[in-house]
Amino acid sequence: MTKFAWSIKKFSKNSKARIGTISTPHGKINTPAFIFCATKGALKSFTTNEAKKNNTQIILSNTYHLMLQPGSEVIANHGGLHKFINWDGPMLTDSGGFQIFSLGHGSVADEIKGSSNIKRNKSLLNINEEGSLFKSYVDGAYKLLSPEKSIEIQRNLGADLILVFDECTPFHVDKAYTNSSMKRSHRWATRSYNRFASDILYKSGYGSAGEQKLYGIVQGGIYDDLREESIDFNLNKIDTFGIAIGGSLGSSKEEMYRVVNFTAPKLGHMNPIHLLGIGDPRDIWSLVKSGVDTFDCVSPTRLARHGSALTKGKVGKINIKNKKYTNQISPIDETCKCSTCSSYTLAYIHHLFKADELLGLQLVTAHNIFFMNKLMSDIRNAIDNDNLDDAEKEWLS
Amino acid sequence: MTKFAWSIKKFSKNSKARIGTISTPHGKINTPAFIFCATKGALKSFTTNEAKKNNTQIILSNTYHLMLQPGSEVIANHGGLHKFINWDGPMLTDSGGFQIFSLGHGSVADEIKGSSNIKRNKSLLNINEEGSLFKSYVDGAYKLLSPEKSIEIQRNLGADLILVFDECTPFHVDKAYTNSSMKRSHRWATRSYNRFASDILYKSGYGSAGEQKLYGIVQGGIYDDLREESIDFNLNKIDTFGIAIGGSLGSSKEEMYRVVNFTAPKLGHMNPIHLLGIGDPRDIWSLVKSGVDTFDCVSPTRLARHGSALTKGKVGKINIKNKKYTNQISPIDETCKCSTCSSYTLAYIHHLFKADELLGLQLVTAHNIFFMNKLMSDIRNAIDNDNLDDAEKEWLS
Q1: Domain B5-297 belongs to what topology?
Q2: pTM, entire model
């Protein structure tokens, strides 16, 4: 008897948008939902208890970072990531592919994934059929990550939802490379699936960290025929619980919208659909209409660290460090019910950033996390009430 | 009708230790108590709400830092420091003297006050009868701080308890300098008192920030005759609510104990006695027996930032970054009831420090704050139960 389930509660009348529920052994996720990044096992400057109070449903951690520090064995010894980081809600881990390739290429993949601040240390040493060899940023040691190894590490980590190992193809490569990379990622996905399905731990009561479910990843860059091929692979050639949309989404928002709108509807209703690395509220309003169920991105917490608080409207954020807030005796948003807006003024938070006090980024992080969860809740309500377009207009006006 | 009061509930049988209550318009402080440093208006990486949950009674902020950023007018416009930083409990501000002189001299005053990491930028430009001229570390502007100016700024900030302006004499100067510095600090104390007592805002309903009470400061370095003179000045020449022990406490723990034990008992019972800048639990156990009622120090939060968690026993702390904690699946202290020890293991906090995650220092800060408040609560109980010596032995064993 599995504790996992995916069910759609209602479809939108005027789009492919839908509200649903992903059930996991650690609780339910009401979709559309946003997944916050606890990259190295910690939401940046934020406790899991606070995240829960700010309505967070699910967080993700990164195989790549955790395999290097503290090492997945340490986490397995600890009874898995849930216990290690004190988060008893649903969790996802990525496969490590994205970080190896975006950190390793030092490529534009960073940019389209909104991670332009990552150090470009060209740590990727070699990539071949077996997997990819890279240099640890922690101690300089050589590390091989393969589909089998990625799954084993994710088994050790023990998140509810895990991903197949893939190459995150950058957007500046040509169609031929995108095609061969996609085909290799499909072979890697099959190997990931085989390792996942045959895992001795998995079959013998699911190991210490509990049962898990696998997500496939749709590749194919900006090329419709390749996307079609990858959609067919994910729907018909491997049997995964969920499907993520990965690979390059092009070099502009328009291209991204086109690729997602081409891909997501063809994935149907049998699997929850995750879009990798997208977190701009404007994009989310648009892309739920293609049928995307979950999103993840480092942006809410990263923006907070740089002093940007998320707000409704077209611009979508304010710069806390702006001098005009020196005497602003009102919160970031008068209507916001987050712990920061209930207790602190812009004048104070502005002062904290000017004075280099860590508390400043913590307070904005709380607001941004609450904000994203409110956004997703408003989207779910709008789908439920058949007024998604109106709600979007109101939010962005 | 004043809302301020000082009352002693009970004296220890075998020492000068006492338990009492300082009442302020923002609540009562049960003494002996520890005052946590929110230097620039923020407990380092910690919200005031969390501080309260961890049993914090009173916090202090620094005139020197706040006059430079954001400026005391900004805080006055905001309705005072309590509203600015969202802390509705008792607060104290220092006069700015200590920072001007310790930062300005770049002297050993840093070390004996436990602040050896402060940048030594020799910002103090001139000191004369009027006050002291220094260069702002924020914008390089010349600033004069005088007794009158310090009180005006502290009136703007609006803490419950405020301090007279003094020179914090370093310990390496000779007796002649200590003597003349003390006499000038006495003249400055009189001017501080006069400005405080004659303040128009103060007399006309206490301004926006509410009523305040003044503390004098006992000077005199390590010289008994000078300490006697300063004690006489503070008890008989100005009329303050509380009295702080300041100036140099010597170059060793033994000298500090001697100076405090010489000074505090002579201050009697009519005023709460504060000891400036001391926060080592071993010192606190010892110095409450001289009759000290309140202590302050940056050490609990500073130690946390450097990965040291406070513990009972002779050593008094553990280094979270020590490799031996990699797989330690138990909290910092099994018996501790703080939010960190209830939720997180040493293995996880060790990982956070290794991974440069800010959450690590936040979690240790929570523990250290709770720890200091538990220490003071245990001391109060021990005085109440007449077993202070036994309780100290047990705590330090």
Answers
A1: TIM Barrel (3.20.20)
A2: 0.93
